[in-house]
Amino acid sequence: MTKQTDNFWHQRFLQDSYFYGTQPNDFLKAQAHVLPKGGRVLSIGEGEGRNAVFLAEQGFEVTALDAAQSGLDKVQRLATERGVTVNTLCVDLNDYVFEPQQWDAIISIFCHLPPALRTRVHQGVAQALKANGVYLLEAYVPKQLQYGTGGPKSLDLLYQASSLKQDLQGLDFLLLEEIEREIYEGDGHHGLSAVVQLIAKKTPNP
């Protein structure tokens, strides 16, 4: 992420409508039960709040992290409309420090980062999870460029199961697969898509 990309997202989220809608990501909704119940959850690259607010509605203590203040303003707006509380943190992931053993779960839904930053963030994720903490991710893979139904246009920003497995050494993978599925999320994601889905757990040392 750069100042230029941060500004891109800030401008995109300034519109009144929610670019990715207000309903949670399907994968997150289906798998939320694997997150430690009632735990502290960090959502990186949260955007406009659809996933953070959903988790808050399920009883989690949620912090939404994003570099675009306009998106976080909409997080608070949506949380107020839904009658829940979400903490917000406006920071670029280049500058964010992952403190050890702080989170029961961390989620990343279509938060696409360049390779070096992605690796550093994932190393931070592994450190920042508490024992038995869970990392949940969905992202587009290179095949998505054939579909053009959402996501980055740059190959460098797309993820693969193999690179995620390398990044997250030390975590136990409960799910790691590349699949094709229909995604309809506001104006931003619309149609058959190629994604990687990941659920990984930090197992306590014996």
Automatic annotation (TrEMBL):
Q: Which domain of life is it from?
A: Bacteria
Record-annotated Methyltransferase domain positions: 41-133
Cite the GO molecular-function annotations of the record: methyltransferase activity
Q: SUPFAM superfamilies, from UniProt?
A: S-adenosyl-L-methionine-dependent methyltransferases (SSF53335)
Q: Which Gene3D superfamilies match?
A: Vaccinia Virus protein VP39 (3.40.50.150)
Q: Where are the transmembrane segments?
A: none
Name of the protein in its database record: Class I SAM-dependent methyltransferase
> Which organism was this protein described from?
Paenalcaligenes hermetiae
